[in-house]
Amino acid sequence: MMAKYSSKINKIRSFALSLIFIGFIVMYGGIYFRNSPLIMTIFMLFGLLFIIASTVVYFWIGMLSTKTIQVKCPSCGKHTKMLGKVDMCMYCREPLTLDPNLEGKEFDESYNKKSNNKKPIS
Ligand SMILES: [Zn+2]
């Protein structure tokens, strides 16, 4: 079990997890075609492909998590990990940025809905 990282990594992790589920569902679907070995094999290979893809994503998460920076959240005071120059606090979802110049720029639309709660960390 990996440690809980920032929300960006959590999003990627749930994506990787969903790939595993899709892979198993596709492989399970192949059982319905057990009378046709060719179709069943195709289903199994597709399912395997999803599972391989999720392994790659998990590997990518491992690479990304080495690049996280530990910061103290200005809002809740807890130590959180952030990835890149902007991320969210994993405890209180406070938007965080390391670079004040990037404030309001690199946050995507969903972050921009909350207008004035971006606090720089110095
Ligand atoms: Zn916080």
Automatic annotation (TrEMBL):
It comes from the Bacteria. InterPro entries: UPF0295. The keyword Cell membrane applies. Residues 102-112 have a biased composition (Basic and acidic residues). The keyword Repeat does not apply. Its main location: membrane. The chain crosses the membrane at residues 12-33, 39-61. It is found in: Cell membrane. It is a multi-pass membrane protein. Keywords: Cell membrane, Membrane, Transmembrane, Transmembrane helix. It holds the Pfam family DUF2614. Coiled coil: none annotated. Residues 99-122 are annotated as: Disordered. Belongs to the UPF0295 family. NCBIfam families: PRK02935.1. This is UPF0295 protein P5G62_019335. It comes from Neobacillus driksii.
